[in-house]
């Protein structure tokens, strides 16, 4: 088995804030293989974006303290000198940022922004780099690539701008692509096109992909493995089938239970209300002493949850290449565990993906 493209071990990020230290990422560990897609999911504020910005050295110095290990093709990103890190961004790791409109410089042409990155990491002259830029725009499916080089970001649609961002991220053939909410601001049809584009380029180039999202429909359609984050911690991970079909952590079950099921019939002419996860995520400056989900958990089936952090333990068989793990002592739903659920919470079953709609239609 080949070595992973990316290995993250015990990643921790602490930010200095006016309210005190904020522990935004707490002990995150995962790996990404060549040609593999790992989806990182969770609510806003769970630490997803900060975790990857920390890997690439994009957090403000003097504000962020980052510890742990992050090996990209054998080199530790967290101990690299700034000059070496600049060399790695591009050929080693490319990133598709969340908002294409703010990621592109509004006063520079698309061609200039593409050419700049290409020439920073190659020996190509300006003319050759411009030809390479046009080829990349064609590769990501933009019409009239040569003409697009002379256009400005405001002249392109949201989907076209996102394709430009993907072209920039892929311009130096990275071993790892990080996509941070790459389809969030796009309509469903364009989402499907972007997902198909990334999947096709990944199959062609064999790169690893970290896909950050809160859209479980996208996860079901694109991911090989899923990592669920809450309060800066990984609360569950495993293959996409294990996590979505057999969720073990109450938070994961809550996320899946809150998904609308378009096939669910109305009862007496009334469509049932969506289930919800009560409360709000904890502030990173004041995390719970025990399980990070305990204040919102409808199960609370173990007294240790309030005072101890449950370890990320294997659920089911350990004789598999990618074991299913969850950081909980409460793997049973309220109805099965016999505990008292918090009122107004998500349902008592363990929802799978039967109700998940991806941008390309119902899955499974």
TrEMBL record:
GO terms for biological process: peptide transport. SMART domains: AAA. It is a peripheral membrane protein. SUPFAM superfamilies: P-loop containing nucleoside triphosphate hydrolases. Keywords: ATP-binding, Cell membrane, Membrane, Nucleotide-binding, Transport. Residues 337-364 are annotated as: Disordered. It comes from the Bacteria. CDD domains: ABC_NikE_OppD_transporters. The keyword ATP-binding applies. It holds the Pfam family oligo_HPY. It is found in: Cell membrane. Residues 6-256 form the ABC transporter domain. GO terms for molecular function: ATP binding; ATP hydrolysis activity. One of its GO terms (cellular component) is plasma membrane. Belongs to the ABC transporter superfamily. PANTHER family: DIPEPTIDE TRANSPORT ATP-BINDING PROTEIN DPPD, OLIGOPEPTIDE TRANSPORT ATP-BINDING PROTEIN APPD. This is Peptide/nickel transport system ATP-binding protein. It comes from Blastococcus aurantiacus. The lineage of its organism: Bacteria, Bacillati, Actinomycetota, Actinomycetes, Geodermatophilales.
